[in-house]
Amino acid sequence: MDLNKQGTATLQRPASRVEITNAFLRSVYNWMAIGLGLTGVVSFALTYTSLKSLLFVGMGDTIIFTSLGQTTFLVTAIAQIALVFFLSFRIDRLSGSTATTLFMVYSVLMGAFLSFVLIRYSVGSVAQAFIASTGMFAGMSLYGLVTKRDLAGMGSFLFIGLIGLLIAMIVNLFMPSSMMTFIISLVGVGLFLGLTAYDTQLLKEMGESVPRDNETAVRRATIMGALRLYLDFINLFLFMLRLFGDRR
């Protein structure tokens, strides 16, 4: 209850479930954007500024990792996987601030890791892939928000597709094929576009049931939601870059 200037008591209208859901989704997208911003700053600094000399040595068309670069690549690759699993399986035991901090750390590590990918592509290719990925991600995320179709059935199909994609990428690593690389990239784009719509609808449903009186639970759900969409975008961007990017 609030008092207006005339001293009249007024009752505050409780927020509706729609308003609570919208607030939750805004928070998810905001944290996702912050994570992508951190990733972008770190990857840009290590790829396009003088800091890149710490990780890479250029010799004509060949790029060689320095000793620090090799160590950074291994550490960031392992640490990212460990953090994703830790957040996924321990999120219910973490405080809101700890979950947020770990997400920020993950975003920084991803930025360092991406520098080893971006260094092999022209700036124009990276920019084009980013813009295209942003538009496609936004479109599929919007679809996930507004569609009346239940996308839950897509979950198992997408999971099986990801397993198949991973196996194909491992095989292609040992038996390289330009045609297989093209097919893998094309399938990867399709899978992560589907995951974007699926995860968005899942988060919308999560926002409708999130406990409004438990700030810690809300923050945990927000961070996990931001991480899911963040990973969808990053993977979509990487496959778009592989599909259309011009290598240096």
Query: What general outline do the C-alpha atoms trace?
Result: globular
Strand order in the sheet with the most strands: 1-2
Mean pLDDT: 88
Beta-strand level of the residues, as a percent range? Answer: under 5%
**Strand count, sense and closure of the main sheet?**
2 strands, antiparallel
Rg value: 21 Å
Distance between the termini: 64 Å
How many strand elements?
4
Series of H and E elements: EEHEEHHHHHH
- Which regions contain 5 or more consecutive residues with pLDDT less than 50? none
Q: Helical proportion?
A: over 70%
Q: Please count the helical segments.
A: 7
* Helix-and-strand structural type: mainly alpha
Can you tag this structure with a few keywords?
single chain; 248 residues; mainly alpha; two-stranded antiparallel ribbon; two-stranded antiparallel sheet; 75% helix
What is the fold's blueprint, element by element?
Blueprint: E1 2-3, E2 9-10, H1 17-48, E3 56-59, E4 62-65, H2 67-90, H3 96-118, H4 123-146, H5 154-174, H6 178-209, H7 215-244
Antiparallel strand pairs: 1-2, 3-4
Walk me through this protein's architecture.
Helices cover 75% and strands 5% of the residues. It is built from seven helices and four strands. Helix 1 packs antiparallel against helix 6 and helix 2 (67-90) packs antiparallel against helix 3. The longest helix is centred in the first third of the chain and has 32 residues, at 17-48. The N and C termini lie far apart (64 Å).
Outline of this structure?
This protein is mainly alpha-helical. The chain has 7 helices and 4 strands, in the order ββαββαααααα.
